[in-house]
Design a protein that fits this description.
alpha+beta, about 130 residues, 3 helices, about 30% strand, five-stranded antiparallel sheet
Protein backbone atom coordinates (compact mmCIF):
# COMPACT_ATOMS: atom_id res chain seq x y z
CA UNK A 1 0.00 0.00 0.00
CA UNK A 2 1.32 3.46 -0.87
CA UNK A 3 1.10 6.24 1.69
CA UNK A 4 1.72 9.97 1.28
CA UNK A 5 5.33 10.82 2.20
CA UNK A 6 4.22 13.42 4.77
CA UNK A 7 2.00 10.86 6.52
CA UNK A 8 4.83 8.32 6.61
CA UNK A 9 7.29 10.90 8.01
CA UNK A 10 4.83 12.06 10.66
CA UNK A 11 4.08 8.45 11.64
CA UNK A 12 7.79 7.61 11.91
CA UNK A 13 8.45 10.66 14.10
CA UNK A 14 5.48 9.79 16.29
CA UNK A 15 6.56 6.17 16.68
CA UNK A 16 10.10 7.24 17.57
CA UNK A 17 8.76 9.71 20.14
CA UNK A 18 6.59 7.08 21.80
CA UNK A 19 9.44 4.54 21.88
CA UNK A 20 11.75 7.10 23.45
CA UNK A 21 9.41 8.85 25.88
CA UNK A 22 7.15 6.16 27.32
CA UNK A 23 8.70 4.18 30.15
CA UNK A 24 8.59 0.43 29.50
CA UNK A 25 7.47 0.65 25.87
CA UNK A 26 8.03 -2.57 23.93
CA UNK A 27 6.38 -1.81 20.60
CA UNK A 28 4.72 0.92 18.59
CA UNK A 29 2.85 0.06 15.41
CA UNK A 30 0.92 2.51 13.28
CA UNK A 31 -1.25 0.64 10.78
CA UNK A 32 -4.32 1.10 8.64
CA UNK A 33 -7.69 0.03 9.96
CA UNK A 34 -7.51 -2.99 7.68
CA UNK A 35 -4.17 -4.13 9.12
CA UNK A 36 -1.48 -2.79 6.76
CA UNK A 37 1.59 -1.55 8.63
CA UNK A 38 2.65 2.04 8.02
CA UNK A 39 5.38 2.24 10.68
CA UNK A 40 6.61 -0.20 13.29
CA UNK A 41 9.13 0.13 16.09
CA UNK A 42 9.52 -2.97 18.24
CA UNK A 43 11.99 -4.91 20.32
CA UNK A 44 10.96 -8.07 18.45
CA UNK A 45 10.23 -7.54 14.73
CA UNK A 46 8.09 -10.68 14.53
CA UNK A 47 5.44 -8.83 16.54
CA UNK A 48 4.78 -6.06 13.99
CA UNK A 49 2.54 -7.77 11.44
CA UNK A 50 0.64 -9.69 14.11
CA UNK A 51 0.04 -6.52 16.11
CA UNK A 52 -1.18 -4.63 13.02
CA UNK A 53 -3.68 -7.43 12.28
CA UNK A 54 -4.83 -7.69 15.91
CA UNK A 55 -5.31 -3.92 16.17
CA UNK A 56 -7.53 -4.02 13.11
CA UNK A 57 -9.72 -6.76 14.57
CA UNK A 58 -9.89 -5.22 18.04
CA UNK A 59 -10.74 -1.78 16.64
CA UNK A 60 -13.62 -3.33 14.70
CA UNK A 61 -14.89 -4.98 17.90
CA UNK A 62 -14.56 -1.69 19.78
CA UNK A 63 -16.53 0.11 17.07
CA UNK A 64 -19.27 -2.51 17.21
CA UNK A 65 -19.40 -2.38 21.02
CA UNK A 66 -19.64 1.41 20.96
CA UNK A 67 -22.49 1.34 18.46
CA UNK A 68 -24.40 -1.49 20.13
CA UNK A 69 -24.20 0.17 23.55
CA UNK A 70 -25.17 3.51 22.02
CA UNK A 71 -21.94 5.17 23.14
CA UNK A 72 -20.90 6.30 19.64
CA UNK A 73 -17.63 5.82 17.81
CA UNK A 74 -14.81 4.01 19.58
CA UNK A 75 -11.79 6.30 19.99
CA UNK A 76 -9.43 3.98 21.86
CA UNK A 77 -9.02 0.63 23.55
CA UNK A 78 -6.83 -0.22 26.51
CA UNK A 79 -5.99 -3.78 27.45
CA UNK A 80 -4.45 -4.47 30.83
CA UNK A 81 -2.70 -7.84 30.97
CA UNK A 82 -0.56 -9.64 33.53
CA UNK A 83 2.72 -8.41 32.03
CA UNK A 84 1.74 -5.01 30.65
CA UNK A 85 -0.63 -2.87 28.63
CA UNK A 86 -1.80 -2.48 25.04
CA UNK A 87 -3.12 0.92 23.99
CA UNK A 88 -4.86 1.37 20.63
CA UNK A 89 -5.97 4.80 19.47
CA UNK A 90 -7.94 5.42 16.28
CA UNK A 91 -6.87 8.15 13.87
CA UNK A 92 -9.45 9.70 11.59
CA UNK A 93 -7.28 10.99 8.74
CA UNK A 94 -8.95 12.36 5.60
CA UNK A 95 -7.40 9.74 3.29
CA UNK A 96 -6.99 6.65 5.47
CA UNK A 97 -8.12 5.38 8.86
CA UNK A 98 -5.19 4.48 11.11
CA UNK A 99 -4.64 2.82 14.47
CA UNK A 100 -1.72 3.69 16.75
CA UNK A 101 -0.88 0.65 18.90
CA UNK A 102 1.52 0.80 21.84
CA UNK A 103 2.63 -2.21 23.89
CA UNK A 104 4.25 -1.55 27.26
CA UNK A 105 5.44 -3.43 30.30
CA UNK A 106 3.87 -2.90 33.72
CA UNK A 107 6.48 -0.18 34.33
CA UNK A 108 4.49 2.21 32.13
CA UNK A 109 2.25 4.83 33.68
CA UNK A 110 -1.12 4.14 32.04
CA UNK A 111 -2.38 7.72 31.94
CA UNK A 112 0.87 9.07 30.53
CA UNK A 113 1.10 6.34 27.88
CA UNK A 114 -2.49 6.88 26.75
CA UNK A 115 -2.09 10.67 26.70
CA UNK A 116 1.08 10.49 24.62
CA UNK A 117 -0.45 7.96 22.23
CA UNK A 118 -3.43 10.28 21.74
CA UNK A 119 -1.07 13.19 21.06
CA UNK A 120 0.64 11.24 18.29
CA UNK A 121 -2.75 10.23 16.88
CA UNK A 122 -3.78 13.90 16.85
CA UNK A 123 -0.71 14.86 14.80
CA UNK A 124 -1.56 12.13 12.29
CA UNK A 125 -5.07 13.47 11.63
CA UNK A 126 -3.67 16.42 9.70
CA UNK A 127 -0.47 14.89 8.25
Amino acid sequence: MNFAPQLTRTAALGADTLMRDIKGVKAVVIATEDGFELVGRVENNAMVSRLAAMASSLAALGALAGEESQLGACDNLTIEAAEGYLFMVQVRHDNVGLIVSVVTSRDAIMGQALFMTKQVAKTLTTA
